[in-house]
Amino acid sequence: MVRDCLARGWAEPWFANPLKPDWLVCKLTVAGRKLAAAAPDEDEPSGAA
To answer: pTM score, two decimals?
Structure first.
């Protein structure tokens, strides 16, 4: 999932993890934050306003 977000421009590498160099540490881009803000909240019951 992280690599898909990187490929779509929704996330970008943030820093290298010295303890786990093979792990990707990323942050959302502006486009990723807009997408996350527009996504429906799955914790909200249907019909909640």
So the answer is: 0.69
Has residue 27 been placed in a domain?
Answer: yes
Distance separating the N- and C-terminal Cα atoms of the chain:
30
* DSSP E strands, 4-47: 11-13, 26-28
* Tens-digit pLDDT profile for residues 25-45: 999 999 999 999 997 766 666
Residue 6 lies in a domain: yes
Count Cα atoms within 13 angstroms, Cβ side, for 7.
4
According to the model, what pLDDT value does residue 18 have? 92
Q: Helices H, strands E: what count in the chain?
A: 2, 2
